[in-house]
Amino acid sequence: MPLIELIGLKTYFYTKAGVVRAVDGVDFAIEKGRTLGIVGESGCGKSITALSIMGLIQTPPGRIVSGEIRYHRNQGDQNREEVINLERLNPRGRKMRSIRGNEIAMIFQEPMTSLNPIYTIGNQIMESIKLHQRLSRREAREKAIQMLASVGIPSPEQRVQEYPHQLSGGMRQRVMIAAALSCNPSLLIADEPTTALDVTIQAQVLKLMNDLRREFKTAIQFITHDLGVIARMADDVAVMYLGKVVEKSTVKNLFRNPRHPYTQGLMHSIPSLSSKKDERLMPIKGVVPDLLEIPAGCGFETRCPQAMDICKQQPPPQKEVVQGHWTSCWRYD
Fold it and tell me: Between 3.40.50.200, 3.50.50.60, 2.60.40.10, 3.40.50.300, what CATH number should domain 2-103+183-271+280-332 receive?
């Protein structure tokens, strides 16, 4: 059963220059206890999709113009389930605030800008615990220390009193993970959580997230541009381009047989252990089109080595090329 479903989600920003269609008809689902990796170049709508789920789109200029975000909330009984349309909730309303940070939590890309420099890390973790779990300050502090220990921070009793600038980048990211998991959410959204970390700390954080997913049975929406991280972390993958999902599949099927020319281009543009020393990488030519001037046909047509005449005229339909493997490309119609 899906935990959350996005059906035709469109999030636009209305600017003086025109309408920016940042998310333009996104469809995907995340099942309970599984990790969905979302991959694509910068500016393809990955983060805006996550912020739409969280109800954190700045209005104005942005707003969800159509589509649905269905959250399947467990009522405590396996046979009872409440379906909540998150896009209909008031982002500042009581119901959305009871879900945000409690049942659906998010790890942001840069912990130094996400953590408040004037509060101790203990107070920042305790804030969410006290709000959603209604514990006393003493109980919330004990829970914060327990969460810091669970994410591998040494001397958590001491660290809970320290400020963000006193911690390394890797430790700050672990604090963000501890804060996000402190209320045992059903869905954890991780927006490029390892981008600013070196490879050693990155490996530790990824292992930590996998371990915590198994321990807390949390579904994860993992946003990244790194296909190597996707291969390690994800069960399923959605490839985004120009505000749309152009391919989605299980991670094994996607890496074995990528179907969309954009996905194939991403695969060819990264080095592998089998590459020869003097072998050149094959970058994707061109750049992502301006979101103010989206092409009438396929958004990838201007960069696609396999483009046909129809690609300039009409956007391609989504087609299931094999069971569970969907792509949006005219070659499969």
Answer: 3.40.50.300
